[in-house]
Amino acid sequence: MQAAAIKHPQQTLWFEQALLPEGWASGVRLRIESGRIADIRTGQPARAAEACDAVALPGLPNLHSHAFQRGMAGLAEVRGASADSFWTWRELMYRFVDRMSPDDLEAIAAQAYVEMLEHGFTRVGEFHYLHHDVAGRGYADPAEMATRLVAAAQKTGIGLTLLPVFYAHGGFCGAPVSAAQARFVNDLDGYARLLEASGRALAVLPDAVLGVAPHSLRAVTPEQLDAVQRLLPQGPVHIHIAEQSAEVEQCLAWSGQRPVDWLLRAQAVDARWCLVHATHMSAAEASAMAASGAVAGLCPITEANLGDGLFPVVDYAGADGRWGLGTDSNVRIDAAEELRLFEYGQRLQARARNVLAPATGGSTGRRLFDAAVTGGAQALGVSAGLRVGARADLFSLDTERPEFASRRLDAWLDAWIFAGSPMPLRHVWRAGVQWVRAGRHVQAEAVAADYRSALARILE
Known about the structure:
The chain has helices at 86-97, 102-118, 144-156, 188-201, 222-230, 245-255, 259-266, 283-292, 300-305, 313-318, 335-350, 364-380, 410-419, 444-459; strands spanning 11-20, 23-33, 36-41, 51-58, 60-65, 121-128, 159-166, 209-210, 213-214, 237-241, 273-277, 295-298, 322-325, 394-397, 425-430, 433-437, 440-441. By secondary structure, it is an alpha/beta fold. It folds into 2 domains: 11-58 and 387-446, Urease, subunit C, domain 1 (Roll); 60-380, TIM Barrel (Alpha-Beta Barrel). Strands 3-2-1-4-14-15-16-17 form an 8-stranded mixed beta sheet, covered by helices on one side. Strands 5, 6, 7, 8 and 9 form a 5-stranded parallel beta sheet that branches. The longest helix is centred in the first third of the chain and has 17 residues, at 102-118. The protein is globular.
């Protein structure tokens, strides 16, 4: 399927209410030029023949995705011979990618990106580690698989922050990789070539961002970690860390330190870093991570699905830590559910309600949403929110639905996150282009057909 032509017409959009960085505003007119917000006026009446809607919200960044895993969603829900865990799930994932071609990756990624846009995610951080062919050999173009992710983003319209992953070892102390990991592995020279080729592939997307992603402390040596983050001094740096308790125990055995503690001591972690999961932290680690300015990359649906555990948000938020949301394994793609499950997990742990609400009388939904927008944008290297100069990435709520009856302003967010029925979003614009109309992506049918064909090839 050919990518849809992307046009960025000069236009205006008018909303009865819009959530701007400074808060809710009425009668909001956005003037959009070349995909960016050129002007914002408030207190404006609607004009005849102008595109109008009720409620506008800034698009959400999805800071952590493995798009190809969308194709295996639901396949790991059968009990194995032994106790199931992240590690047994990983073995199934290795088998799933064993037959995946570049065409298959493009088709599956496009399906994931369509669903992300339909649920309000307008930019994705693609933590991309499927680099080589099924035999573990490099393609003629080191960025062949990355190029397919770019094609999927171009086809569907989603913003892309590409995070090519450096993966060199199968465990701490430079342990060798397994045969199942051969498609992921590079040495430093190969990774540098991959990064350069990925940058060229991204040139077709006008607002793409390139970052680096050392996979995890168990997959890189300290020397490699230092070298990788220096390859792109100004770009985002993402790393899996402290996702599993076994990983913490292995790190303690290797270094005598917990993973986040070790990283913060070994590297100059700052605002360009995203520490993905960081589930198993001590209170001291949480405070130190918050002080670094890094973003915690939280993926509540995946973390629940894999049985990872709950992020220590009380300690972290109490230290003004920044966080954003990702869909990770893409077992289910639903922005509102990610936000809801994050809060609900904390409620179950604390046996309290409105754990993340800002203060007495403050809206939990608003706090969740604002944090996800701000932290996610920081992690993906873009501007946050509806502001002049930013990309025109936004969505509108279908306020005619019953769950929004007699609600306004922050109560709309609370209703969407905690009481919304499926597909309460109405329209979605990415860089000023309307990719979702009445809850449905404009390329949904064609993309789904390619997706079904890809899965038939992989799973036959």
